[in-house]
Amino acid sequence: GGTPEENRDILTRLLQGNGERAHEEAVAVNVAMLLKVFGHEDLRENAQRALQVIRSGQAWERVVALAARG
Fold this sequence. Notes:
Elements: H1 4-15, H2 21-37, H3 43-56, H4 58-68
Helix pairs in contact: 2-3
Protein name: Glycosyl transferase family 3 domain-containing protein
Domain Glycosyl transferase family: 1-59
GO molecular function, one term: glycosyltransferase activity
């Protein structure tokens, strides 16, 4: 919940590796399930990889790179 601006700020912090643990874990669970759909069967491994990408700031770097492509 919250305003669009608040949600934007929460998502930005999350993707930059500065999010709240509960938000990180919620995203990681969803990513883990999505990866399973695409053949990556180990949910624990999928979630750990997602957390690693989120917490390192790599997720933000990827978003910025995609945005730069137009």
